[in-house]
Write a structure and sequence with these properties.
By secondary structure, this protein is mostly beta strands. The protein has one helix and 16 strands.
């Protein structure tokens, strides 16, 4: 019988819950990053020991951490999330135009077949890609620079699925701005 692992991010840290396949008894490990808000935890389907965590605080800002041992130890990785080219503007919730401004990573989506490839969905609506285990991030500009970008209100970006015929063609299949209704395929 196989085991089950649940990765939980809270406003007070990260937790790993594990159980056998029957799920009769659970073991809770954590909190990791006590006192930090954890926006997302994700495990790599290609390497069960590779975990990514997106955390943020008002004092220290955005921080991505990576574990290569199933969450026993964590290491900060690249945190330079820069917009590529002209930043541009979008409509704010009240209808006024404002420049895009990076706030935090809401979602991490590791590749199903490469533990070093991971996508990151950000607020204000942006999508980033790392192919070296989170050390360096590159914005995939199609979401922010799409013609509907200026008329969408900001929020977070979530990646729903992958369409990856090969390593050179990996891309998220569907990403959307969950606050303003922008969707890019």
């Amino acid at each position: 019988m196989s085991g089950v692992r649940v990765l939980v991010g809270t406003r007070k840290g990260a937790f790993t819950l594990t159980a056998d396949g029957r799920r009769d008894s659970w073991t809770v490990d954590g909190p990791h990053f006590g006192g930090w808000e954890i926006y997302h935890l994700a495990g790599s389907p290609a390497d069960p020991d590779r975990l990514y965590a997106s955390q943020s605080s008002g004092w220290f800002g955005q921080l991505i951490q990576r574990s290569d041992d199933g969450g026993k130890t964590w290491t900060p990785v690249g945190n330079d999330f820069a917009y590529q080219g002209e930043v541009g503007e979008h409509l704010w919730y009240d209808g006024t135009a404002r420049p895009f401004e990076f706030k935090r990573i809401w979602h991490l989506e590791p590749s199903p077949d490469d533990p070093d490839t991971v996508y990151a969905g950000a607020e204000d609506a942006a999508l980033y890609l790392s192919t070296n285990g989170g050390q360096k991030w590159t914005e995939l500009t199609a979401l922010r620079t799409h013609p509907t970008g200026p008329v969408c209100s900001p929020a977070l970006v979530a990646c729903a699925a992958y369409d990856h015929p090969g390593p050179s063609e990996q891309r998220p299949d569907l990403c959307g701005d969950l606050g303003g209704g922008c969707v890019s395929q």
